[in-house]
Design brief:
single chain; alpha/beta; Rossmann fold; 3 domains; seven-stranded mixed sheet; five-stranded mixed sheet; 16 helices; 41% helix; globular
Length: 429
Amino acid sequence: MNNIATREAYGQALVELGDLRDDIVVLDADLSKSTKTCEFAKKFPKRFFNMGIAEQNLIGAACGLSTTGKIPFVSTFAVFATGRGFEIIRNSVCYPNLNVKICATHAGITVGEDGASHQSIEDISIMRSIPNMTVLVPADGVEVRKMIFEISNYTGPVYVRLGRSSVPTIFNNDYDFKIGKGVILKDGTDATIIACGIMVNEAIKASEQLEEEGIDVRVINMPTIKPIDSAKKTGAIITAEEHSTIGGLGSAVSEVVTEEYPVIVKKIGVTDVFGQSGTPSELISAYGLTSDNIIKKVKIVWEDDTKTEYIANYKNVKSNVANYELSGLNVSYQYDKYIIKEDADLVSNLVDYAQKIDYTNDLDPLTEEDDSRLYRDYYNETTKNNIKQIVLKVLENIPLGQLGEVEDIANSVACLVNMFKKNYRMKKF
């Protein structure tokens, strides 16, 4: 499949679906040439309904059809579907949990010259706030087709966000779309870019450039904004969406990670302003919805993550958990082996001693061209062993019976000190 607008792929998928199922009906608000439902109307005129410029009536009629066993696909521009149709969607679709599929086109700023009045940058926020509503944002034409077929078999309200402009094809025809699941397009360890819609391709481009610069970034396509998938972090997260940074993908991701995997989340999107008239490419650049801006945000959080320095002060030991005060934060470190309270002072002294050593002397001189990634990787592989040797030397004259296995203590302290060292962010256990 060549570059294609998601609205175009939607129109094609409807026709294909209509051939397979006679319970599919399509409703439009006098915009079928723009929403591409006109293709369905041509082939199945008795199953197509033009409700006129009356979005509330459009949604209400779809509710009625759904109660008769039909599966209504409702289309208009996103700004009108979610704005003018909100009350009917809330009270008549979602409250009774009816099987209505709202597939709104011309979302985001890539509507272009139509300007701010037609550029929906709030629709994800509006739709995901309603109970029982599932919110989907496809990244390309292949994902649209898979999505439309998937929701035809899903019972309940669904909002699908579609765009006007053509987008690159990312997925192969064997791509397996599942509601509620994110898709890892590229794995990485330094940071994670989570994107949806047109920003998925920009995220891929950004990751490729970052890889050339030695920064390993994970890229996740998040086609389901609600219910959103949960995944363990890689470090900092950057979200990218053609939507307001308030209430959209970035907000949804933040809500998850703050409860499960606390981490910095930086958001790329429209920053609490309306759109304006211009070509899609001009607007994308003007609002920073580009791979270059993603790269910039990744570098900011990555450098912050790798260059942060903490000072650890021993507090106490309870059971086998040593508690430290780290730059004002209370953190704990779980030792691999049990450490008795009487040994706490010794462990603390070992940490203090190890921290006073200038480990950078063990490193080869770095050139100006070498970045912090090189330093970090080398440090990660070598310094912990150096610390271990220092700890072992300190423990040489300590009876084995006092601390149990010296080797175990050395390993634990080495790991602890390594996390405390410059260029490493403390991990919370």
